[in-house]
Each structure stands twice: as C-alpha cells, then as structure tokens.
Amino acid sequence: MSAAGEVATRVERITALLQERLHPLKLELRDDSAAHAGHVGGGGKGHFRLLIVSEVFSGQTLVQRHRLVHDALAPLLESDIHALVLNARSPDEVS
Q1: What is the homologous superfamily of the domain 3-58+66-93 according to CATH?
Q2: In whole angstroms, what is the distance from residue 91 CA to residue 69 CA?
Q3: 59 dihedral zone (left: phi>0; alpha: psi -120 to 50; beta)
Q4: What does the DSSP 8-state code read for residue 78?
Q5: Is the Cβ–Cβ distance between 88 and 65 less than 8 Å?
Q6: Quick check: helix, strand or coil at residue 77?
Q7: Residue ranges per domain, the chain?
Q8: Which of helix, strand or coil describes residue 40?
Q9: In terms of Cα–Cα distance, which of 84, 46, 86 is closest to 65?
Q10: At 87, is the secondary structure helix, strand, or coil?
Q11: Other C-beta atoms within 10 Å of 56: how many?
C-alpha cells in the first residue's frame, strides 16, 4: 500500500473511532505527518491536529476532555499515532 493510502486509512480509522465514541458535532482532523518526516522516535506513526466539538465535553475539564479523546483512540495510540495536537470544545464554546 502507498504512503498516501496508509494516511487515508489512519485518518479514516481515527475519524471512525471519534464518531463512534464522542458523537462530535464538528470534527476536523489534519494529518501533519509530512512536516515531521524523518522525526526521531516517530516509528512510522502519524502526527495529527484535531479540532473536535462534542456535547460530551460539556462540563468537563480540559484534562477530562483529553482523556475522553485518548480513551476513544486507545486502539490506535500505540500503532498509528505518534503526536496529537488536540482542541476539544463543547458546543457552547464555539460560535
């Protein structure tokens, strides 16, 4: 499989897990892996930037929100994700 095909698969798998577990109203996932090519310690895993808006985050602290996302992505954290820049918001925090 080509590198582009692998990236699409990662993005699709990440998106599917987040949709299933957190039911986001908005989800923007960007693959920044190309900017980190040759990064020591990456082991072929991807670098991603995520904006996610979900009712699940209402009343949750920043740490609780990050835990919810990390729990949702647990199956991929060891195999596919090296770095994740995360912006998790509740609907009342976005305009």
Answers
A1: BolA-like (3.30.300.90)
A2: 16
A3: left
A4: T
A5: yes
A6: helix
A7: 3-58+66-93
A8: coil
A9: 86
A10: strand
A11: 19
Under the banding of pLDDT at 50, 70 and 90, the label for residue 2 is very low
What is the separation of C-alpha 92 from the centre of its chain, rounded to a whole number of angstroms? 21
The amino acid present at 68, given as its one-letter code, is L
Residue with tokens 């990236």: 7
**How much is the pLDDT for 37?**
61
The 3-class SS string of 42-67 reads: CCCCEEEEEEEECHHHCCCCHHHHHH
CA dihedral (6, 12, 18, 20) in degrees, to 10, reads -130
CA torsion 79-63-90-13 (nearest 10°) is 0
Rounded to two decimals, the pTM is 0.82
Per-residue pLDDT of 35-65, as tens digits, reads: 656 555 455 678 899 999 999 999 999 999 9
C-alpha count within 13 angstroms, C-beta hemisphere, residue 68: 25
